[in-house]
Amino acid sequence: MKLTLKIWRQNGPEEKGEMVDYQVSDISEDMSFLEMIDVLNEGIIDGSIDDKGNYGPVAFDHDCREGICGMCSMYINGEAHGPGRGVTTCQLHMREFNDGETIYIEPWRSKAFPIVKDLVTDRSSFDRIMQAGGYVSVNTSGNTQDGNAIPIPKENADWAFDAATCIGCGACVASCKNSSAMLFVSAKVTQLSLLPQGDVERNRRVKNMVKQMDEEGFGNCTNTGACEVECPKGISLKNIARMNQEYLKASFTTE
Amino acid sequence: MSLNSRIPEGPLDKKWQNHKNNIKLVNPANKRNIDVIVVGTGLAGASAAASLAEMGYNVKSFCFQDSPRRAHSIAAQGGINAAKNYQNDGDSVYRLFYDTVKGGDYRSREANVYRLAEVSTNIIDQCVAQGVPFARDYGGLLDNRSFGGVQVSRTFYAKGQTGQQLLLGAYSALSRQISKGKVKLYNRHEMMEVVKVDGKARGIIAKNLVTGEIERHGGHAVVLASGGYGNVFFLSTNAMGSNGSAAWKAHRKGAHFANPCYTQIHPTCIPVSGDYQSKLTLMSESLRNDGRIWVPKKKEDAEAVRKGTLKPTEIAEENRDYYLERRYPSFGNLVPRDVASRAAKERCDAGFGVNKTGEAVFLDFSSAIERYGNEEANVQGIDNPSKAKIKDLGEKVVEAKYGNLFQMYEKITGDNPYYTPMKIYPAVHYTMGGIWVDYNLMTSVPGLYAAGEANFSDHGANRLGASALMQGLADGYFVLPYTIGDYLADDIRTGAIDTNTKEFEEAEKEVKERIDKLINNNGKYSVDQFHKRLGKIMWNKCGMARNAEGLKEAIKEIRELREEFWKDVKVPGKADQYNPELDKAGRVADFLELGELMCVDALNREESAGGHFREEYQTEEGEAKRDDDNYRYVAAWEYTGEPSEAKLHKEELIFDNIELKTRSYK
Amino acid sequence: MSGFLNRSLVKKYWMAATGLFLCLFLVGHVSGNLQLLIPGYEGKLQFNEYAVFMTTNPAVKVLSYVTYFSILFHVIDGILLTRANKKARPQGYVYNKPQRNSIWSSRNMGILGTIILVFIVFHMQDFWYEYKFGEIPYMVSEQGHPITKSGEVVVDGVINSESAKVMKNGEVAGLAMKDLHEEVMEAFQVPWIVIVYVISMIAIAFHLWHGFSSAFQSIGINHDKYTPIIKKAGYAFAVVIPLLFAIIPVIIYLK
After folding, report:
1. How many domains are there within chain B?
2. B264, B462 in Cβ contact below 8 A?
3. B131 pLDDT higher than 90
4. What pTM did the predictor assign?
5. Does residue B308 fall inside a structural domain?
6. What CDD domains does the record tag this protein with (chain C) (predicted)?
7. Helices and strands (DSSP H and E) totals, chain C
């Protein structure tokens, strides 16, 4: 396969960026998208691919390359993680593309995710939201009660699990026309609100997490549903509704 | 320096309790004056950092990823073991201990493993309390499943994402402490050097990966929870960033490296498809509960399959060789990982491999689909169901159990495993070896600790499935926070560690010089090219099977490759900017030394045990042959300047509670 | 007001609450309008009586203020949301394919809302303002006698054009009923007015297509069992109500 890549290049957070064209050839259908970028970077390093603008190899976040760490984050052909459904960029394979195709690759775009370099963004705003309340306040001890002391209805446990599968990649924010982080935040709020262990702090949690979310500069949810479609883990909009409910209750029942 | 493992006196089941009772404590007011550095935020690192902070220490937590939640523990699929005996199948702390020691081919420390089994139950309780959504049954109680190498159901799980859920639990505990200001997080930071003052670990030199800045961080103790070194093979199931550098730096500063040759090769991974491949993907061990592994019986069939002229589904039942069931009738497809991996290699080496490269075997679900289909038809009261109906029903059951794995397989390979058997092949997955630690998890450098996969302690020569998560969390939540006090109790009057000393200055200088050397090298070849070549040497000569001749060659080749690397590596960009190529170069430089030490260790160990299989030492049936008389020890290597010249220290392994037997799964 | 709107989620609640109320209002409005289709004098009388009722009944008055408030709040809140959302992504994508993950109307509620707002202003000016303050013919019975607001036919009564009072024998028999029906009939003879109405109703249809079910999501109602029903009801509502509104001017024009 031969491809034309149009990739966003930007040297640093304050620098101006631009789209730069690259030609890659000998791309196998069995390659993952990131392996294709590896080929490009090898070419840039060994000089076989023209390094226009002297940007050097393309910087991109990636780590586990099996779709679970949430590090990879490319906006490919107008979609977060590209055209595949239920996959992260690292699981996207080149058989999804055609020979001769032009592929646009951009970083996540959001005020709350400033660009570090090229396709790498700073998503520590997500960490700060978690720090605002995405936990159960329990210390480590050998004496917490037995794991089976409180039975949890299977439906709740399953829903909590589904919500908890969020990998924090930020595709929801990237896809949302408002750069809203509601899907991400609601997944954690929902998970913990469904479990008896998380019940005690539920009001405080939802209020603090939403407050932090707003302060980070994410947009508002307008229920377009784009996040759910693009989410590589299929986190459901139901979680957002659940968070809306939680917050409403918390607003009425607490200071 | 002799090795003192500091195993407490007393009977096995009282050791840990006695030790905890007698350990020195640091009072809460004094803890506030003590700083602890934790490198890594995986299960061991995040749980240790959170627990230490809860106790009152000031913690600095480092990870090279953009967030602590990305650590590669997140990718663990199957589950976590605990001796809860919820299933009433006769499980107990002793059994878990026994299985782990046996599974590790009698190359682990009894006292450590027993403690691991003891605290395993606390881990489950702790995680449930944190809101980890384990799988539950309809009664609302925790569910269990079974893993390779054991005969009870003690594995707790959260679908195929147990590692993720546990890590997020630890991450949430860590986040809570960060919000309280008890943990200061340094993300996108890499540890570059351990700083020793008066023989004690007193801090680290770290690099801010975004700005390239070199920073000094002081602490009264340093905990390395930096994971394993499987990426020395280039292709492994590890994350791209997983590296052995922190451990290697510690080794160079005096921490002994134990059993580096023990590498776990996981039998069920998606095979390599081409040279561009950057990583291998694991298919959970749980698949072996229902999948049957086979290759064609006839060579001509295998050849035809490789050429693509014969489909696996066209091969008749009697022409298939279910070699695990044939060789190991009692455990069948559920033999431990090392055994399953070697058996696959044996068949492929004999010419029965089934993909283009000849390095793949089939993992077939058709009989499971049929079996479940029939069961389901019975349940639904369908008389004389058609074959298509049975297949349909069976597929639904299999989908419910393994749907996400099947989907993942299809995405990566483009084949639909419901119709055609999966192709799998072993791949490097975990390293049992690591930094030598005593019972307190302290390395041979005072004040320097190692936890999780980074240390060598609990798995011997082979790790059982679902035990890595257990060990990481045991170390981080329940062992290290107590044992570290024993050391820190003497530090209550030390005061803050001054980083403006010559020790820090020297360490920083060394780091900078090395970076400058790499960046100004102006060579011809990219870092990856060297890494790939190293991986090939390691895989071919220090992989699933090793022999003396190959290992000697490997040592020579690695040394040459290392020289070539320093002469000819090309690192683009600058040092004072975000430069992943530079970071990679530093890690590969360390792998080029570590790989050599692995071969040295493998050459030294003239026996076969667990993940270490020496071709010279096998039974007539091709099973591993241990030599308990001469090699019942931990090989701890001391750095002396060159990996090949490392000095061997032996820690004798004493088995008072378990009788050493030949491991048999037949 | 900042107390009501300080959190993204609260903005959503207001959007949903006012939106749902306006949906109710639309039902009332369209059922009133449908009286325009009743033929002959009967219809005319009924419609004009209805107009009197709508402008004089105290309960209706209260409701109308709630309606004005809802519209106003919906608009202000919408503007605040849109502004915040724009800020959340200062730099957009070079290449974007939102149509792959969300429907057009969900992404263009602001534009649709603006069209609707312009229409409401035009519509209020056209009928409500005219009816209240403009010059409108008075309703007369079939025999040509004036009718008071209370519906009484004043035989041989005379309407005082200054005070709009119906005078009979020098005495005031009541206020004259305005013939809004006639006004409407006349307006809808003008092709461009009919077109403006139809287009605006299409805008409302698209607005509702997303807005109806979205409001439920915003207040936290998302349930596997009920949400599919709410969605279908929303689509039906979005089609039927604007269609009913739109066919009235068309029928009148064609008559």
Report:
1. 2
2. yes
3. yes
4. 0.95
5. yes
6. SQR_TypeB_2_TM
7. 10, 3
